[in-house]
Amino acid sequence: MAHARRKFFDALGNDKEMAEYALSKFQLLYEIEEEVRSKNLNFSQIKGVRQVRAIPILEEMKSWAEKNVVDTLPKSKIGKAFRYFLKMYDRLLIYTEGGSFLIDNNLIENLIRPLAIGRKNYMFVGSESGGYWAATFYSFFPTCKLNEVNPYQWLKHTLENIRSTPEKKISSLLPQNFSE
After folding, report:
1. 93 and 164 share a domain?
2. Residues 9 and 47 in one domain
3. What is the pTM for the complete model shown?
4. Are residues 43 and 98 in contact, defined by beta-carbon separation less than 8 angstroms?
5. Fewer CB in a 10 Å sphere around the end CB: N or C, the chain?
6. Pick from 97, 130, 162: which residue ends a domain?
7. CA-CA-CA-CA torsion for 72, 5, 87, 111, nearest 10 degrees?
8. pLDDT over threshold 90, residue 139
9. Range of the domain at 66
10. Closest CA relative to residue 30, chosen from 122, 124, 95
11. pLDDT tens, position by position, 32-84
């Protein structure tokens, strides 16, 4: 959703009226998400809210885009925004099918950004096996962040307890299962 929204944001200089209209609809969708987060609804309730309130907005946007795309130049910024939105429409609806889905992938992108920035630094980790273990290890820190766990405390606890933890219970040492 964030990528589709950005296309319209980038088109503000090309066709301000249409871009602002689309952005106002995206704003409504994000306001719905903010509302369900603030109310601490369960996944079933979130899905219900999205089905009732978000799907009509998205359907209206699709009809509007289909009607207006024919009057735009394909290579213009607004034309690209319309075409991207219509091409991705079915995928944009997916988040409305479950309460556990996020409206966009910004959270995940922000969590993996440090890894992406350092990607070239991680190309040479000694061996293929080293690469596997480095990737596994680096995944722990975003997991800590997602679960609001202090990475230092988790790692210290894990290193202190890994030798005495039976193999069948090793998953108890994962960040999502850690309690301080």
Report:
1. no
2. yes
3. 0.67
4. yes
5. C
6. 97
7. 150
8. no
9. 2-97
10. 95
11. 999 999 998 999 999 999 999 999 999 999 999 999 999 999 999 999 999 99
Burial readout 57-71 (b: 16 or more C-beta within 10 A, e: otherwise): ebeebbebbeebbee
10 and 68 within one domain: yes
Query: Which of 63, 97, 131 represents a domain boundary (last residue)?
Result: 97
The Cα 23–Cα 39 span in angstroms is 24
Q: What are the DSSP calls for the chain, one per residue? A: -HHHHHHHHHTTTT-HHHHHHHHHHHHHHHHHHHHHHHTT--HHHHHHHIIIIIHHHHHHHHHHHHHHHTTS-TTSHHHHHHHHHHHHHHHHHGGGG-TTS-SSSHHHHHHHHHHHHTGGGGS-SSSHHHHHHHHHHHHHHHHHHHTT--HHHHHHHHHHHTTTS-GGGGGGGSGGG---
CA 113 – CA 31 distance, rounded (Å): 25
CA distance 61 to 77: 17
| Tokens found for residue 60 | 């209206």
